[in-house]
Prior knowledge:
The complex is a heterodimer of chains A (496) and B (463). In chain A, helix 12 packs antiparallel against helix 13. Chain A has helices spanning 2-5, 12-29, 94-101, 111-120, 145-157, 163-181, 184-197, 210-215, 218-228, 244-255, 307-317, 324-331, 363-379, 384-401, 405-416, 424-434, 437-447, 464-470, and strands at residues 53-56, 62-67, 73-80, 126-129, 134-141, 234-240, 280-284, 291-299, 339-346, 349-358, 453-458, 475-478. With 496 residues, chain A is α+β, with helices and mostly antiparallel strands. Chain A has 3 domains: 2-33; 53-255, CATH 3.30.830.10; 280-481, CATH 3.30.830.10. The termini of chain A are far apart. Chain B is α+β, with helices and mostly antiparallel strands. Chain B has 2 domains: 37-242, Cytochrome Bc1 Complex, Chain A, domain 1 (2-Layer Sandwich), CATH 3.30.830.10; 266-449, Cytochrome Bc1 Complex, Chain A, domain 1, CATH 3.30.830.10. Chain B is built from 15 helices and 11 strands. In chain B, strand 4 and strand 5 (120-127) form a beta hairpin. At the A-B interface, helix 2, helix 4, strand 5, helix 6 and helix 12 of A face helix 2, helix 3, helix 4, helix 8 and helix 10 of B.
Amino acid sequence: MSRSGTCRRTAPRLAVFTAALVFAGHVLAGVDDFPATPPAAGPAPTLQLPTPWVQTLANGLQVISVTRAGLPLVTAQLVVRSGGEMDPPRLAGLAELTAELLDKGAAGKTAPQIAAAAEALGGSLDAAADWDQSTVGITVTTPKLAPALALLAEVVRQPDFSEAELKRAKAQAVDDLRLALSRPTALAALAASRAVFGGGAYGHSRRGTPASLARIDRLDVRRLHQALYRPDNAILILTGDITPAQAQQLAQASFGDWRKPATPLPPRPAGATAGVLPPILLIDQHGAGQAGVVAAHAAPPRGDQDYIVGTVANAVLGGSYSARLNEEIRIKRGLSYGAGSQLRAFAGGGIWLAAAQTKNPSAAQVLDLMLGQFKRLASTPVPAAELAARKATLVGTYGRRLETTAGLAAEVAALAVHGIGLDELGKYGAQVQAVTLRQIENYARRHLARHASVVVVGDAGAFAAAIGKEHPKAVLLESTALDLDSPSLQAAAPGK
Amino acid sequence: MTKRLRPAMLLATVFLIAAVGSPSPATAAELAIPPIRYQQRTLPNGLQVISAEDHSSPNVAVQMWFHVGSRDDPRGRSGFAHLFEHLMFKSTRHMHAEQMDRLTEDVGGANNASTGDDVTNYFEIVPANYLRTLLWAEAERLSNLNVDEKNFSSERAVVEEEYRQSVLANPYGKFFNAIDPKSYAVYPYKRPTIGSIADLEAASLQDVIAFHHTYYRPDNATLIVTGDFDPRQLDAWVDQYFGWIPKPATPVPQVTAQEPRRRKNRRYTVTSETAPLPAVAMTWLIPPAADSADRIPLQVAAALLAQGDSSRFYQSLVYRHQVARQVGAEADTRVGPGLFTAYAILASGHPPAAAEKLLDEEIIWLATQPIPAAELDKVKTQLLTRELKQRQTAQGIAFALGQAALLDGGVDHVNTDLAALQQVTEKDVHRVLQKYVTGAKQVTIDYLPQAKAEPASATGATP
C-alpha cells in the first residue's frame, strides 16, 4: 500500500487494483492486518493564498478586494478605523450605539424597511464597534451585490439617528448589558480590562454601562458619526466572487461621491493609564452556577515588532484545545469545560487574558494552575516538539479562517485598520515558523513575569476564603455594588 | 472554547450549526445553486460511505456519524451518549488518550464531536495529506476503544463542568434545557442530552464498554469524507481500514416508544437565580424530519416568524411593542417526533404573558392570512444564502451531507430539498401551521427570575 500512498493523484488504476486485493483478503487477514501505528502522512499540500488588491479613491476611501471564486457569494464590509476607544469620557458605549443605529433609519427608509431590504437580498446588515474599528457588513449572492452595496452606503453615509430609535436602542443595550454581565467570565474579563488599562481608552465597557447609556443623547451620536465616519478614515472590503475591476466600479458608484471633511481626524486618546484595582479581585455574584477565573497582563500594541512572537507564545499557553491551560485545567484534572487565553493587541496597547469557568469550590485551584502556567512560560523553555505542534495549529487555523468570504474580510480588516501591509496574509505561516524558543522566553520574561491582574467572579462564599488564604491581599466586592464607569469599579467614595 | 459541543444546547441561538434549513433559489432565474456532487457506497459490513470532492482548499474533512444519540441513553443514565462521545478521545488499543489531537491539531488540523438527540458525530479537518492517518484513527476508535478508569473519571468531571457551564452558569441555560423534558410525555427525547449530575455520577466504565459494543459498529455508522482527496485512493483506504471490522450478528436496538398526541394544553414554570429577564417558550409536536413534505413548509414558517430583524416576531415583539429583547422560532425536526418552538426573552418590566399573547397572534395571523409573495421570496433567498455560506468549506459540505443522510430522509435530500423549498407556497405554510400548531395542543414554559438569597459577604465569607 505504501506505493499508492505516495501517489495521491496519480495511478488510479493501481489504487483500484490494490483496493480489490485488500478487500478480497479482508476476511482472512482480519484484525491482525490492522496496523498498530497510524500510517504516515503523504507529502504536504501547498496552500494557495489569495492576493488582495488595494486602491484608494480620490476621497481617501481605501478599497480592498480579494477574489475567492467558487461559490457565487460576496462579503461587503465597510470598516471605519475607529471604535470604542473613541468613546468620550462618561459616554461609554457611544461608538457601539452609533454603529447599531446606522441601519435603524437612513436615506428616507425606516428601520423595518432597511431590515426588509437587506433580508430580501438574502443577508443582513451587521453593524458593531470593536476596539480600533467599527464595521457594517453583509454577505449576499453575487446577483444581489450591487443593491446590497447601495444599501450599505446609505446606512453609513445618511443615517437618521432619530430620537425614537435612540431610545429603543438604549433600552435594548441596557438589557443586553445585564444579560452579558450575568455571565461570570464576561464580568471578570471586563474587570480585568479595567485592571490592565486603568482609566485608558481600552479600559472601559465598550457596550456602555447603565449610567453612561442613560447619559447619551442624539447630539452625541451625531457628533461621533460626523467626526469618524468619513472616507479618509474608512476602508471598503469586498471578498469572494468578484474581480478587482468590479470592486472598483461598485466602490466608485456607492462611495465615490462621499465627501471628505476639511477638518482633521480627532486624535486617539491614550490606551492605558495606571490601573488602580487590587491585584486579586473577587466579585460575589450570588447564586452563580460557576466561577469565572480570569488572569490578565498588559501586552504591547499591535504595531510592536514582537506581535507574532506574542501570538506564538499565546498558542503555547492557551490558544487552542491542546495548549497548556486546557491541558492542565481540563484534560488532566477535569476542572473546567474549557480553559484558554487570548492576546488582543490594539493600536494603543494590548492585553493577555486567560480565562476558565469552573465549579465555585474549584476556583482557587484553577487560579493557582493558571498563574503557574504564566510563570512556567517565563521560566522554562518550551520543548521543541510542543512548539512545532502549536505553530502548526496556529497556521492551520489561520488558513481555514480564510476559506470563507466573511473570514477573509475579517482578516483583511484586522490588518488594514492597523495599517499593516496586506502581503502579511501570505507571509503569516513563514513568520510563525520563524519564531524561536529564545524569542518566546524573552517575550514572556518581559511581559508575563510580573504579577497578573486577577479577577474571580462567582458565588464567593464557596471560594473567597480559600483564595484569601493564598492571597491575603485579595479584595471582595459585590457584583450589585460595582460602578462600571470607574477605574476602581467603586462609586465615588473609594474603599467601600 | 466550544470543543465537543452538544448542538442541542445551541437552541439558545435561533438556528442550529448544521443548518436545519434546506434553502433553494427563490430567484432561480438569477442564480442556480450548484448541487453537491457526492458518491455513496456501503461496505459488506454495513458501513455507509459518502464522499464529495472539492479542491478549493488543500484540506480534507473526515466525519464519522453514528446513529445513536441521547434518545438511546440507558435507563437511569441520562447524558450517557454525550459522556460516551467525550470518551472516544481517550485511549484505544493503539492510541493513547488525546492522540486524536496529536493527529489533527498538532499537524495544523482540528477535531471536535457533538451529540444530539438522534446522532453523534465526530469530525476532523486536516491537511489533505493526513487523510489516510485519520481514516486509520477513526477505524481504530470504532473497533478498539479501551478507556481506563482514570480517564473515565476525569472526563466525567469535564462533562459535569460542561453541564454547569451550559445549564447553571448560562442565564438561559435552564430555560432551553427545560424545553424537551416538558414537551415530551413518553418519547426518550424527554431526557436532556446533557443529562444530570446524579445520572452522570451513576455511570460506570462497564456502561462505557456495553454502550460501545451495542452502538459503535459499522452497520450503525456513516463515514463522510469531503474536500481535497482522490476518490479511488479513498476507496482503497476505506476498504483497508474499515473493511475488516465485523458486523455483529445482533440487530442494533431501536427506540420503539410512541409519543401520544397531546390531549390538552400544559403549562410549566421554571425559575432561575441568575437570569436578569423572564422568558417564555411554546412548543408543538411535529412529524419526523424524513417527512420533508411537512418539514420544509414548517421551516419556511419558522423563518417567516423569526429569521432576521424583518421577521414577524421581531417586528412585533421587539420593534413595535418593545416587550421582548430576543425572539425565536424553529422547526426542530428529528428522527422521531419533532417540536415546533416559539420563544421570547422579555424586555425589562414586561411579564411573559405580554410576549405570549403577541407570539400567539403572529402565529395565528401567519396560519390564516395571505402571505405576501415578496415575503415568501425573502425567506427563500435568506435560506439559500445561508446554505451557500455553509458550503464554502469542506467541513460545511460534510455537515450538509450528514444532516441529509441521517436526519432528513436520505443523502439525496441535500440537493432535492433545495428544489422542494422553492415550491413551497402560502397554502403549504397555512396547511402545516393549522395542522400541527394552531389546531393542536401546546406546552408553555414560563421562565422566571427568582429573588436571590443573602450575598456571601453578608454571611462573613470575606477573606
